[in-house]
Amino acid sequence: PSSATGNLRPGAEQKVVFITARVHPGETPSSFVCQGIIDFLVSQHPIAKVLRDHLVFKIAPMLNPDGVYLGNYRCSLMGFDLNRHWANPSPWAHPTLHGVKQLIIEMYNNPKINLEFYIDIHAHSTMMNGFMYGNIFEDEERFQRQAVFPKLLCQNAEDFSYSSTSFNRDAVKAGTGRRFLGGLLNDTSYCYTLEVSFYSYMLGGPTSAVPYTEEAYMKLGRNVARTFLDYYRLNSLVDRPLAPTPKTR
Known about the structure:
Strand content: 15-25%
Order of helices and strands: EHHEHHEEHHEHEEEH
CATH architecture: 3-Layer(aba) Sandwich
Oligomer: single chain
CATH superfamily: Zn peptidases
Radius of gyration: 18 Å
CATH class: Alpha Beta
């Protein structure tokens, strides 16, 4: 039975993809991208079935629920930019970060679990398209391997820009999830910030901006999920013919 395949076999090593979103309450597009990922992964789409058989997805869709409830732009109820407190989150002042970080560390310390990806979803107020931030490593081979996922995503999503994707180690970003976990996890884990524009994506020339819609954000989420199929070379396991990607809401 399918329930006993891949990562679900008793004793099998689990490959985990950890996704978080909406740490900044004003960045509403991140919630639609995350919704697209979730809706696709729980659907009956043949690709989704293969992904569920081979990977474990852990998703925290809203890291800053009190800030969202209050209508804050960037901070939590207590006035913290949570995305600068990953290094030492307080269970009292930053409870969502504390809980997620504890779970990630537990998984990291479990020999049966391989935490392969951490992706934190944001929205960007000045740039166009979807793009990623990654980390800088001294090890050239690790640096090159880190570029594989965004390159594959660029092939799958017309609105994702690899040329806007950048790898950095700015001091101002040191407390972010991507930077902190990139330093904590070992060299088989890849940590990214996925950014998507509040406005538009560019198709073709510099004058052809297409305004983002809720559906377009969700489509980017579906394309993020589908890219894991290419990354793990699972394409041959998908039942043919492929059904069209389900439209959600």
